[in-house]
Amino acid sequence: MTLGNPAIVAPALVWLCALVLLLMPELAALQKRQLVHGTLLAILLGLALALPVGAYAYATLAVISFVHAAAAARTSRTSVLSMGVAGLACVVAAGALWVEQLPVAFGASLVAIALRCGLFPLHGGVAALCDTLPRVQAQQLASLPVLVFAHLRFVDHSQLAFDAAIPVVLIGAASMLAFGFVSIAQRELGGLFRASTLMHGGMLFAAVGAAGRGHYAAALIVAITMALALTGFSIMLTALEARSGPLASLQGGGRARAFPRMAACLAFFGGAAVGLPGTSGFIADDLLLHALWGESVGSAVMMILASALLAVAILATFTRTFLGKPVRQLAPDLQAPERVAAVVLVIFLLVLGIVPKVLVDPISELMK
Amino acid sequence: MHVFLGVAIVAPFLSAVATGVGLVLAKRWLSERVVSRVIRGGLGISVLASLGVIATYLGVFGVPVRGEVEFGSWLTVGEYSIPLTLMVDQVALVFSLLASVLTVLVARFSRTYLHKEPGFDRFFFLIGLFASGTQLIAFAGALDLFFAGWELIGISSALFIGFFHERDEPVRSSVRAFATYRLCDMGLLIAIVTIHELLGSTKLSALDAAGSLPAWESSAIAALLLLAAMGKSAQLPFSGWLPRAMEGPTPSSALFYGAVSIHAGLYLLLRVSSVIEVAPYVAAFGVFVGITTALYAAAVARIHTDAKGALAHATLAQIGLILAEISLGLTTFALIHLSGHAMLRVYQYLRAPNMIHDAHTYGHGHHQSGPGLLTRLAPRLSERVYASALHRWRLDDRIDAAIAPALAFARLLDRVDHRVRGALSVDGRT
Questions:
Q1: What is the pTM of this model?
Q2: CA-based nearest residue to A110, from A53, A60, A181, A164
């Protein structure tokens, strides 16, 4: 299935996904004041995808990371540091590409991805964003697929990328498994969201490693699926927090009676994150599993185990919050903007799950 | 043929998606009539499509279409592809028709049974999801597709167990069942990837070449597939979730744990019987597990005091026997046994709420008999079996003890994560 020139279609599709990821949280929160910030990011993301020269694309990605750092400035210095260093790594990658030092660019780009996806032990910044600034985390999730796209397009074709594939895959898989276990120990939705984000971060890093040996589509679809599912999850958590108070202090369950739509959407996004069939999560998991199996059987088994652990953790934490004896809630269920945002994300997850060729074919064609 | 096959799988899925999106977007809740009609419409179309597939198979519309039916590929990346291949053979037709007819009957029953029950919409949404999952596994010609249907069945099954979510016990049971499913599904996932790597394709037809693999490889694949089947069909030592699953509404118990879902593991083994055949040690283990489960379930069923619990264990005993039959290579016999058993259990489960009424109306019908054979031959052993059956051989406690170290490890990693974040934080807090 080819919709046209893959050099145009592939970046355009990634940009479309990034736009949706940027806009939906703002729509759900009715944050009109953030429109300027969102528009700036959307333009920068479009630029990073459209620029055919790697150095320029990475320079734009550096600016995007600094924008994320600035957005986190008032709340978490750890996040500022993390996003700032990711930005600097992008600057190094841009400089290295300019002087045609591909191995340096590859290393710097990997560091940027590790910081942005929350690879253990560089996960402090992302963890702090998940805990304190889910809106900024949603924005940086929106730009993460663009960073991965640039990595695949400009720096992932070297011998070093090929040689480093297995160590990178193993590091990512170990981080994924560690946070899979951490997710099981979580008692509340906030902690689960953090652990889930970091577990997917490890998964993405492993996918990027496998891309060094040609599994490009797996890496990109993992990045996009992760962003779509976690953004939906984050929107629902923000909605719940707005109605019931801080997630960490939520006591008991029984909120499904008062917020049935919220519960249903949260369950769907949680399911998509762990490979619910019919969603792009299933395709992402399937592609990644085959990619990892080809490079390292151990990492594939770690991925399967981590995904199973996260699935159980999501259901267990969901039941603790939403199921059980009903509690009295005066706040209403999801409002129209929140429902529209949720449905748009659901549709994206379903379309990419049922017709994955729409995205996978142009990416594969382009990367050839 | 292509149209019939596609419609059989997609119609219930679309009806579920339409209902789900409608429920989220609509300002007011959809009425019971709308929800049940949309879903039952999808299920009815699926039954008709299944009949259409059978007619095509028999050659009613011209040349009979049998075997693999290709729809291209779901996606292709380099050398890897997920083939959209469906399989039309006698096994698939029997299971598809059985599942679709029983689902539509249970849906009709539930329209009245669950009238004005909170969660009516949820129930029908899940029925739609489940029906598409069962049709997908019935016709799947490739294991990737089979796994998609398998997961849909697992998720809807867990959500049905927790249907009465305002009570704690159903919710806990739902998490336990789901955890068991996911643990055992790892076997199926690893088997699928291994098959792809070793045989070059996940198509069911490719499994015929399993005999050409070294014995340990074919045995490993067979063992992984058996693990998946044991979890889904509640074989020992994973039987603990089945009696707990009776917390769900009676129609879902009938459909899932009497008819379709509980047999899905056995259906998987029927589909991959060519792999089991070339792995004699795994087949022998399958016979052992099946017979042991049958004995365990029969002992527990005899002392159960609640109707659904006794039925669950009676079902389990038969499932164990069917597993033994498949492992012995008696696949046709097993398919007949499976079909008859599914139909009988649906009827029994749906009648279960009336048992007390029936007992009052028609009498208990108990026959006072003398001591059983075991009691006469070995009274001490009989007492021990009775006592063990009372607490179901402490299966759940043993499983809990087995996973306790993993949970402790998870808590340890959580503390390590907290400390690492604290050490690397420049905020002065975590």
A1: 0.91
A2: A164
